Amino acid sequence: MSARPPNSFQADGVMVETGYPETEVVSQSDPTDHALAAIASIRDQPEAHPEPERAAVVEEKPIVPELIEADGYHKVGPGPMTTIRIKWTARRENNGDYYVEETIGENSALIVSGPMGRDAAIRFVDERESEARRQFEQLKSEMIGRSAAASLVRRESGEI
User: Fold this and answer.
1) Does residue 55 fall inside a structural domain?
2) Is 25 among the domain residues?
3) What's the Cα-to-Cα distance from 140 to each of 8, 78, 133, 136, 145, rounded to whole Å?
4) Each residue of 50-72: pLDDT tens digit?
């Protein structure tokens, strides 16, 4: 049996270098090893600094709201699982009023907002999706920050 390099483990016959001295393989058959290795390799990537965009002369055309079909207009919120993703769908009644149906997952009860006009229904869907995305990104950022802070505290206290 050959010696393994430090900070590595073998998964499906492939030697995986983690790059973290504090990394410890739980077991060879632990399915989380693959996920942890993937996360570690992503976090090891240096952040790319995109080149600043050069000003281009582009003729701007305003978006005309009449081009969007409001009946059936929908957006889906962010999230890792479809069972907790929020979906907003605008629908038109026979009398011309619009309602926005909000669902969480696929089998939840509808939350209906309305009546409202066509433009208001589209704006409602866009604003709800935008706010959900903002909150999701903020939560994701906080989770990453806490994870990094906890890792730093562990290193400074000598825990590995």
Assistant:
1) no
2) yes
3) 28, 11, 10, 6, 9
4) 555 555 555 555 555 456 788 99
